[in-house]
Amino acid sequence: MVFLLCAGLLLHPQAGTAQRSGRAAFGQEVETQFQNALDHYTKGEFAQARAEFQALLDLWPRHPRSSAAALMLAKTLYKLQEYNLAIATVAQLYEGFPESRYLPEGDLVVGDCRFRQGDMGAAADAYAKVLRGAGDLRLRARAADRLGELVSTGRLSSPQKERIKGDLTSSRFEEVVQFGQVRWAFRLGRPDLVASRAAAFLKAFPDSPYAGEVRVLMRTIPEQPPVAAAPPASAGRPTRLKVAVLCPVSRDLGKELRDGILLARDLMPLVTGDTLNIVFEDSEDDPVTSVKLAQKLAQDREVVAIVGDLTSRSTVPAAAVANAAQIPLVTPTASEDGIASIGNYVFQINATPGAQGRRIAEYACHAGMKTFAILASLDPYGKHMAGMFASNVEAFGGKIVAREWYTPGTTDFQNHIQRIREIGAALAGRAVVAPDTSATGSDTARVTPAIDGLLVATQSSEEVILIVSQAGPHHFATFLLGGDGWNSPHISREVGGALENVLFVSKYFEDARDTVARRFREAFRARFGRAPNVASALGYDAMTCILNAIAAGGNSREALRERLVAGQDFSGATGRVLLASGERENRGMYVLTIREGRIVLADEEGQ
Questions:
Q1: How far apart are CA 580 and CA 148, in angstroms?
Q2: Which of 238, 424, 453, 554 has the fewest CB atoms below 10 angstroms from its CB?
Q3: Nearest CA-CA partner of 341 in 239, 223, 219, 460
Q4: What are the tens digits of pLDDT across the range 315-351?
């Protein structure tokens, strides 16, 4: 089946000129020498790298690639412990390329050199300069880490700290210090300290650019012996069990989660004779509160599992505590990538951006698509989805021919679309796409697509609508691919009539007609007098996983973990729930499309 989309990835290619060809040849010579020097640097052959970076600068002092060569020369000199020469090279970088994007990284090199020379005040000044500048987030996180460590370890005098505080403002200074304290606790191998400091950081600075790095540290806390292991159950004797739920029960979404969990317990009573009590702890969706509650629950010998929390920011620190105490935690709604990788006791039910990228790649490749382009938001959702999509496309024998990134909030996508169009045109050779000549596009010429599928990786329905609207009046036979950012009635209303070649994945589909999902909706409405939402459904499925594990003999923390790791595959309120054997992240989700302005299942195999 071939569908048509209003977009023009196969617009007319631009012819190259002899002048451009000459510049390309010259540029290739510079690039080859730069890559050779870089190869020596990455191999640790610093003396050879130094000679080659210097030779490039001597031959082409004003070439655009020379700014990168100057930075790499400074980094190489740092590796060779030539600290004064490294600092002088950064100064030359400033002089020769005052607008270079590599200047903030040069400042970081200066800070590291001053640190090695024992001049902590000058090192702190350099790190603060990076933080005040426009370097990318990873670079600023490295500077914040170093400056925070200087303060946390008492290497700065009071006047030096006051000077830096004045440079950064008191709020930013405190943010950096707390970030450094989290990093320092991690280096000390103190998981308890990492968890408490990380939770305090996320509470004080929930919108910090370093919050993502803090969550990454939470995922790498090593497992510790359990604080209070539950006694082994006696064979044939009923056991009193508790499942604890962390969620903001005073908030609407917390109530939805709670009611889905209670419904699962009521509809699936244990046949083992064990007594199950569900206790709800109000986390207030606060990372610090969530950590304290997780620590308290770890001490309760009857608690065999924790469900929660509602959001990723509160789930990550609680999961780190639970994993260290070796108590299974199943998070129903948190969607951030990597939560399940915190440790062997953490399980994730909601579909992460990475899992969505993997699933849509698998579906598209099995449907026969071979070549793909990516247009992705430069945020964690877009990066994780695009990354997993690309790696799985390649694993299935497909090819990514174009990648375009945009910052969240972008409203003009014309340049991104044009670059993808040019690549499509080049791949298609002489293929020409005729413009639309009617309101319906019925007279549009159909061409063999050079790009089979375009992944639009964003969680914003508004960005989806803008991208589709700006894709142009030309038609081609290809597919738009996406994740749960496409699962919005707003999109189907705004552009649904023009889209008949969309495929996207989502964990929840409110019109699902499979028996279990329908039974869940009917039972929920009968019990609570209202329709369920996605939080209710995910809570139901998370509790179902735990009940299945208990029914299979998981009446202790370790036994329950083993039953979960063995795998779960069942039809739930959100469709198929699939925790493959040995995996802790749910892969089950719907594959959806838009037909006649309505979101529907792509096909009968779409789950």
A1: 41
A2: 238
A3: 219
A4: 999 999 999 999 999 999 998 888 888 889 999 999 9
- Residue spans of alpha helices (H) in 405-511: 414-428, 461-470, 489-495
Burial of 84 per CB tally in 10 Å (0-12, 13-18, 19+): exposed
Preceding omega of 136 cis (within 30 degrees of 0): no
Judge whether 428 and 447 are in contact, CB under 8 Å: yes
Question: Are domains 27-219 and 240-351+536-575 of this chain identical in fold?
Answer: no
Residue-wise pLDDT for 349-400, tens only, equals: 999 999 999 999 999 999 999 999 999 998 889 999 999 999 999 999 999 9
Q: Return the H-helix or E-strand segment holding 61.
A: none
What fold, for 240-351+536-575? Rossmann fold (3.40.50)
Q: List, in order, residues 6 or more apart from 430 with CB less than 8 Å away.
A: none
The hierarchical CATH code for the domain 27-219 is 1.25.40.10
Separation of first and last alpha carbons in the chain: 20
Fold of the domain built from segment(s) 354-506: Rossmann fold (3.40.50)
pLDDT tier for residue 39 given thresholds of 50, 70 and 90: confident
Q: Where are the domains of the chain?
A: 27-219, 240-351+536-575, 354-506
Q: Which helix (H) or strand (E) holds 372?
A: strand 371-377
Q: Note the pLDDT tens digit of each residue in 303-312.
A: 999 998 999 8
Helix ranges (H only) for 300-352 are 312-324
Other C-beta atoms within 10 Å of 362: how many?
A: 18
* DSSP label at residue 340: G
